[in-house]
Protein 1
Amino acid sequence: MAKEKKFVEAITSRDEDFAQWYTDVVSKAELCDYTGVKGCMVYLPNGYAIWEKMQADLDKRFKETGVENVYLPMLIPENLLQKEKDHIEGFAPEVAWVTHGGNEPLQERMCIRPTSETLFCDHWSKTVQSYRDLPKIWNQWCSVLRWEKTTRPFLRSREFLWQEGHTIHATYEEAEERTILMQKIYKDFIEESLAIPLVAGKKTDSEKFAGAEDTYTVEALMHDGKALQAATSHFFGSGFADAFDIKYLDKNNELHSVYETSWGLTTRMIGALIMVHGDDSGLILPPRIAPVQTRVIPIAQHKEGVLEKATELMNALKVAGYAVNMDDSDKSPGWKFSEQEMQGIPTRIEIGPKDIENNQVVVVRRDTREKIVVSLDEIVTKLGEILENIQKDMFAKAKAFLDSHIDTAVTMDEMIEKFQENRGFIKAMWCGDEACEDEIKAQTGGASSRCIPPEQEHLSDVCICCGKPAKHMVYWGKSY
Amino acid sequence: MAKEKKFVEAITSRDEDFAQWYTDVVSKAELCDYTGVKGCMVYLPNGYAIWEKMQADLDKRFKETGVENVYLPMLIPENLLQKEKDHIEGFAPEVAWVTHGGNEPLQERMCIRPTSETLFCDHWSKTVQSYRDLPKIWNQWCSVLRWEKTTRPFLRSREFLWQEGHTIHATYEEAEERTILMQKIYKDFIEESLAIPLVAGKKTDSEKFAGAEDTYTVEALMHDGKALQAATSHFFGSGFADAFDIKYLDKNNELHSVYETSWGLTTRMIGALIMVHGDDSGLILPPRIAPVQTRVIPIAQHKEGVLEKATELMNALKVAGYAVNMDDSDKSPGWKFSEQEMQGIPTRIEIGPKDIENNQVVVVRRDTREKIVVSLDEIVTKLGEILENIQKDMFAKAKAFLDSHIDTAVTMDEMIEKFQENRGFIKAMWCGDEACEDEIKAQTGGASSRCIPPEQEHLSDVCICCGKPAKHMVYWGKSY
């Protein structure tokens, strides 16, 4: 069988060739597949199920803060895209253009949305009139398209899935508060559910979203020491509102601009899960985001009573609310273990004739490979504890890795040297000048400013690059 | 206030001008709004929330039968679309073409998916090898684009939201079974959750999906007597598989074609909900699909204790699992009632000082306007019963309407006369010839064959149109 052949070959070692290891995991865990169109992927059942879990979790968190879901069109007429100057400059080079509908050329070409600020603004400019119409706290789950030159599964593709939230508010303060709230929701979601620890802060001007006044970011660290921008929340002030003329009458019948935000998280977080938690046996999923939390694997299933007992166990776990399935195919147990491990299912439960005799099962943790013998009478409650422990331990492990890969530098030589060793984040002082960011990037072989954290430390008085007075302590890193 | 002004004007009467009434409800219940691009709508929170409820309900039914969700790209290269002859003929005139990516012209133009058979087939042709890879039972929730000339909110738009299921199987029988199963799932969902009764059957050849061997349909009847195709399930045999060369090796190492199905349901069902259940006060939503099942409306809310008690009630209902909200704005109670009615929320609960004194509330049913006095001690259980009754009664009412609008005809004159009165479905015999379908359409002012039901009746020996021997009894109707 072609499929069996695939598994016999082991995947590339993570420490040997991180990029190849990543591609191997994506392919052998059957998360996604390539298509004839560069940068447009097929999200396979195993990959899409992870996204569905992320959606459900995040959507609940959104709705608890008053977010309402909507859906806006995928097509943006060229004149709309051009209304906000910085925005069009940022996006025009990377949009796909629709020029024909049916057999007829369009009077005005339209792009497939790379992001939807302009569409939301256009709608609001026609519908918002009074303070009673505010705030609008809207979000949509959809796909967007950006004509990237180089692409990688989940991390950078032309079409990707995401959510984009867009809000308008009566005051500057309320909009700024929402921007910061959404950054916090992303941080909580990613740390609590994906077990990925983060550093958080504001982007520098050169790294901001096209058209934003401020961009708040959360940044994760991959196992190879590279940073990954995990989610961003943008504060627009009234820039878009003015470009689109979105005004409201307040209680005193005075006309004001609205203040706007937008915020998004994408399927690249599936890539982050792989690169933070995975190992040489494949993916490792945190239990809270795993579409399947445990797989029952019968041992010597041809023997009398084994399959019955295994099925009974699976059903009991299902009824108790666990996401569980069973592999009763005719493959060997070792083969089944490899598949379960490759797919990152957090636990497996082995049950064979001897276990049944002793009224027990063997639970194997995917993260530590620890084998835990559990009485069949206790498995329903015990499994919950084991999954909770895995979730906690996976976060602790990733947090320890992150903490041990945050360093400081006070001279350029120190910084250059440390980035040669691929050391993760480096904290260093910066004057606020974009020229120094460019210089640092050039000298370190690509390290960029990741964020300015709210917890500022005074590492030195001067910018690490130019020696002028320092304004901010910045996290620097090479990034995906 | 602009918004208040909107409500003061009553909507058009349903019996006076059905089309205008429909548009009024869509707009005043704030379900969707137009954009600058013809046929591309904004799904507003009230409208999108209905779609989310439909998604959750249907997705659960799908997954119980082994469906797995995936996501395939929105772009289809022209050569792929052209691989199946009937398919390209059916869709080429109504697709939108992408010709430029960024600033560069594409080597091959691509269309935005009007449906994704070709993409699924392309993927499977590269990945399916053995009987072990079968079946694939996949589905995606996404939007598609068809460059329609005339458009109407929810019923016919250029971009619309839907789910499209695609499956491949080792045998003809298994694929046919899946096609019929999906028709049943749609019927159950639409009748049980949307409270919309249906007639079901097969499409005639001329009404089949482009490329299908058989199309199974469920058809609903709108209040104006017009039919609406509610969902379809297509059996492709091995037509697509042969065009795309999707073959598998069976257990004896022999090469076979796979058999394929696809099936879909779209946001036009929101339009169906309006047109089957709505009245002159607006939308009426069946409780099982209503995003909000009850709205608490405090009466004389400025009086001491009223808001507290109303909030307490709302929280108790929330905890019990009801979808509930409260309108404690400074509008008048009458105003609040109108809004709740327009939005189709199945019940409201009025609670004022006198009610509190008597330890009671007044529940008002949206469908019948019946006022039911309920003790505060019993409201949590009683509300559930009331909602169940509404669901049951709404279906019964729609079923009675449908049954009273199914008639028979044995001569063309009879059929023509009955369709002049806009009588819903007419059952009549047909020879199987497409020319007769065209003739019937011409003579009745647009009635088409809706379906050939499995429960065949013998109304006469001959085709109603040509007088040749009859092959089938067919449901005929004018349709959306």
Protein 2
Amino acid sequence: MIRVGIMGYGNLGRGIECALKQNQDMELVAVFTRRDPSTVTILTDGVKVYHADEASKMKDEIDVLILCGGSATDLPEQTKEYTKYFNVVDSFDTHARIPEHFANVDEVAKANGNIAIISAGWDPGMFSLNRLYASAVLPQGKDYTFWGKGVSQGHSDAIRRIEGVADAKQYTVPVDAALDAVRSGSNPDLTTREKHTRECFVVAKEGADLAKIEAEIKNMPNYFADYDTTVTFITAEELKRDHSGIPHGGFVIRSGNTGWNEENKHIIEYSLKLDSNPEFTASVIVAYARAAYRMKQEGATGCKTVFDIAPAYMSALSGEELRKSML
Amino acid sequence: MIRVGIMGYGNLGRGIECALKQNQDMELVAVFTRRDPSTVTILTDGVKVYHADEASKMKDEIDVLILCGGSATDLPEQTKEYTKYFNVVDSFDTHARIPEHFANVDEVAKANGNIAIISAGWDPGMFSLNRLYASAVLPQGKDYTFWGKGVSQGHSDAIRRIEGVADAKQYTVPVDAALDAVRSGSNPDLTTREKHTRECFVVAKEGADLAKIEAEIKNMPNYFADYDTTVTFITAEELKRDHSGIPHGGFVIRSGNTGWNEENKHIIEYSLKLDSNPEFTASVIVAYARAAYRMKQEGATGCKTVFDIAPAYMSALSGEELRKSML
């Protein structure tokens, strides 16, 4: 049994707990929180919730600690810190800061003889893998990543900060015409606006100026100004009824050519359609927790990403079973 | 520069030659053939064609030998034999015999300190990878593989052996309704007949009994009897004009559930749409030739499949570049 701890019990932590239940070779042994542990109720019978400060004392009882904090401020500190004591997996997803995070974590992991897998999830994660495989196989080609249809937490939060907004949910939606153009193999150059639209469902406070809210959303730099954005005002009840899920997904497509004169065209497409973004992310992380455990058993140490991990490490099946059933 | 040799110069061998041209860190150094070398003309200037018997003498001039023989009789012997002298990659695709092939090749590879990557291509190969990744991430779920639309060489050959047939081309076609059912997440149980149809384009010899040919195709056990099969008689000119390509492709879809009560549904889909089956297969093999070279440099030996190879080994980019640009 691979003994797993969860650091942080929000949507992602709960997703990890659910994923562990589906993996018979792994067991949850502890959940850690920065809140008062007595206020946190988890789903698994017989497993205790501890304060985060207690984690390092349990280093010998946990094979892999899964870090479920946010990428903005939590993980840059937490992953470095806990890699001193544990093999860890995180889902650090600030793409631009991955090289820095990798370097920081790698140093600690090597110094302490642990494995730290960073940026596991679906983007970064499964999407990254597909970008790599596709570009290695078709070096003459072009990559496209589309996201959605799905909820962007960051964009929803940005709307909620506007004066007069009580609540909001924002969906990122890939543009069908752009997807079709990519799939045709025409290697189009697509602007930000051509690739995705943004759909906003907003609950306004009583007496708020709706036209002003709408204008403020549509003109918000970085978040909305470069997109075709629609704003729909709904009631709090409608928001709850129709928009309480956290779906997401997207597409990684590579279009490339082969042949002595590049006369043959090929399209590689990978897509995800997810009812629950955090639960799917958690499922990827748990498979990589198995990989972390096994690589450590074989004597490997240091920081790893999905690029560095042979796929077989992620499966509960043996090499022999995999070759027989899946190759 | 990674120095590559090609053993066997048919469609696949030529595809390898074309793929090497697109990879700046690799160079073709020799082509080997069982034919009289003077009768074989290749595309690359300045590279010599040798008889297959000469290969072992060139062991110090070749980093990876790519084996382009057939799976029925060539590769079971060739891969074992050449692994004595070279790191090799093959595309052995008789799924049921992979465990046996692996065991045979592994022994020789270890005894001689070489890396042998077997069953590289797209199925087995990229499709296998996607079956593994998806099932590791979504253990509660179901896998589906569809092939096509594409030319099946084996089925085309089977038709050509029928009395009165001058030439033929067979396409395997996935059934849209089955694909849609799988994508809906309903986890349907699908029969062979429900998943694929078979389209046959046949050139009959003069005076042949067309009705008899059609019946013989449709009732052929294993090949056609379990499928809805259409037979269309065309002229030799039409066959040449409309059916001389070797397209293929297909879909690997996993539908699975997460959540404490498995209440959330997820669909992972990987698809290929290929103008040239042999050239795409060759492109996958060449990326794995790079992996073979690098793993050998790091001291690894033995037989490997796509499951055992960290994705980063396949890319010409460094780990640092990959993390920066693709993660």
Protein 3
Amino acid sequence: MNQNEKLVRELWKCFNEVRFEDAYPLLHDDFTAEWPQSGELFRGAKNFIETNRNYPGKFLIEVLKIRHAGETVISEVSIKPEGGTPLFAVSFYEFSGGKILKAVEYFPDTYPAPEWRAKWASKILS
Amino acid sequence: MNQNEKLVRELWKCFNEVRFEDAYPLLHDDFTAEWPQSGELFRGAKNFIETNRNYPGKFLIEVLKIRHAGETVISEVSIKPEGGTPLFAVSFYEFSGGKILKAVEYFPDTYPAPEWRAKWASKILS
């Protein structure tokens, strides 16, 4: 596992274990995060980590898959809120100087398979 | 642009231009698509293409970014429904024999930036 992948896994581990202070050293001084779904940009580790720290609810986080596209690391993550609807996070990370420099993150939620397309679909066996 | 990337761009172009018949030759005989959000699996080109053909509404589709993670091609796509809420597609494609063999697709939707985290966020300048 390369160093960049380790940083990404450690970031998700910190969030899963509610150890937000430990996430700070993983992030570059010029860190930014973009959440394209809401058009939000978080400049700096503090704004990003405080947003995550204050996200309502408790979550069980599991890294499903890590991919490498050149210098970019991509994580697919399962997020299960206590008593809420599970969702996914698909995140694209860039790096500089052994830290995470940038994250672009999507959070697709789960929903029941719609009836109109049931005739063409079966179920993913997980 | 490599052949796999061409296949992905052509698939989205077919969908954008409502030329569903032209999508068939891009897909492998053993093609499958997984939509993890709903747990749906589409086996074969027909089930996948008919689902897309029958998806309610008209859409303007734009490929925002293509990445390569080994043999996997990843597309980030903007989907703007006529008169509806825009969404994104983040899709992971695998290939065999010059065709698309597998797609795993997430469809994160857009939403207004929540007030509770406004103090930490600014706006993405696009």
